[in-house]
Amino acid sequence: MKTMTCNQLGGKCDVSITAATADEMMAKGMAHLGEAHPEMAADIKKMPEDDPIMKAWYAKFLADFAAAPEVA
Ligand SMILES: [Zn+2]
Fold first, then answer.
1. What is the pLDDT of residues 34-57, one digit of tens each?
2. Cβ atoms within 10 A of the Cβ of 57, count?
């Protein structure tokens, strides 16, 4: 399992999110955004998946996830 903070995912707080895979981290991150920062979640949902900002975010996310420390 790896832990990242909401901030690392581009969010606004330092809540820790733990997940086994990048996909799971993404899903849990979006769920957290929907609950804690619904205005950000709405903005993201409006963006097309091939938006350059989203692509850049995803590349950074994968690198940050790979670099995140493993936790039990
Ligand atoms: Zn947050």
1. 999 999 999 999 999 899 999 999
2. 15
